[in-house]
Amino acid sequence: ELARVYVMSHLEDAVNVLGKPVIIEEFGLPRDDLSTCPNRGPTTIRDRFYEDVVYALCEESAEAGRACAAR
């Protein structure tokens, strides 16, 4: 929930103060086993976090009539 509040506050600032889009890229969440090696260990926690953040952004954007895309 804390991450959602953080992202939503930045979305509001971007739209209402700056008039700019929000771009969120992958950032340093480790794999479930804390490995930093590519293709070693599951990414369940990281995948869920990104899914929640992207869903929240797209849901908020849709309600406000703004575009949202995810890749």
How many β strands by DSSP? 0
In N-to-C order, the SSE pattern is: HH
User: What does the overall shape look like?
Assistant: elongated
Approximate helicity band: 40-55%
What is the mean predicted local confidence, pLDDT?
Answer: 81
Radius of gyration, rounded? 14 Å
Structural class: mainly alpha
Sequence stretches where pLDDT stays below 50 over 5 or more residues: none
Strand fraction: under 5%
Q: Determine the N-to-C terminus distance.
A: 23 Å
Number of helices: 2
Major beta sheet summary:
none
Write a brief structural summary.
With 71 residues, the chain is mainly α.
What is the element layout, followed by pairings?
Elements: H1 2-18, H2 44-63
Report on this model:
The protein is mainly α and 71 residues long. 52% of the residues lie in helices and 0% in strands. It has helices at 2-18, 44-63. The longest helix has 20 residues, at 44-63. The radius of gyration is 14 Å and the shape is elongated. The two termini are 23 Å apart. The mean pLDDT is 81.
